[in-house]
């Protein structure tokens, strides 16, 4: 049950990002004026950008902007508009600080400082650490099942949810990978991949919650549970990618699916006698406290550490505990199934 507290928080935040495109910062007339001048002149103060060098017909003077940089820097895809927005934001924030005003959001985001081309470097680092933690958890789970626990005569694990957790591991790693990419550079493609990966993880997690909590071992029963949920999740992802990026609708879907699986896991946690259920409660408390960081949002400290970045950090130990529970569950189920066979 517990892991879904912070999984839902992760997905819900992904669903909520940029729901409101207009923010206090980008509504500021001085900021808008700065951007307008920058896109015409290619400069903000004394800083000028090669991306903004255009001829009278609108083409770049020195060729495509992405060919004007070293190969190792082209991945970040900063263009004229992006650089103008970033440096105008920095100037406005400096002016606001001089008169005692606090930071405000620009285009739905706090004013972060770039680091080596990364848009939100701390969130990128913690997303990468979450990815590494999921890889470590999945790999140790795989080794436990195939090399440490006894196997059936056909060399398959006794644990009847092994395949489901393997898929969960890959979906989790995929979701955190695209989270890291999205925080590196927020463009249309990375946004859609981040959203799609998060929704896929959330939808599959609901399927897994139902199958594990109700101990569904029959393939027909599993298909009856999975088929409609997979169809809905796939349709929703295709809708977001190919028809309309509807942030409000996506948020509603995430919340409903998240609450549904929380209820399923809560009921199971209340009736199970699992020997490692205490680990679930540790993550429940930790996940609940971590979610406070999302509720009480605050601007980035020194331009790097904001509430969301710290929330990413808090999920790292929770991931370790969750995979520890999964491995305990594998040992517990394997022992019980072996007894039945004997």
From TrEMBL:
InterPro entries reported for this sequence: Per1-like
Gene Ontology terms: cellular component: Golgi membrane
Signal sequence bounds: 1-22
Organism of provenance: Penstemon smallii
Keyword Membrane part of the UniProt annotation: yes
Membrane disposition: Multi-pass membrane protein
Functional note: Involved in the lipid remodeling steps of GPI-anchor maturation.
Annotated coiled-coil segments of the chain: none
Domain of life the protein comes from: Eukaryota
Keyword Secreted set for record: no
Major subcellular site: membrane
An individual GO BP term: GPI anchor biosynthetic process
Transmembrane spans: 124-146, 158-181, 193-211, 223-241, 247-271, 278-296, 308-326
Localization: Endomembrane system; Golgi apparatus membrane
Protein name as catalogued: Post-GPI attachment to proteins factor 3
Keywords carried by this UniProt record: Golgi apparatus, GPI-anchor biosynthesis, Membrane, Signal, Transmembrane, Transmembrane helix
Family, per entry: Belongs to the PGAP3 family.
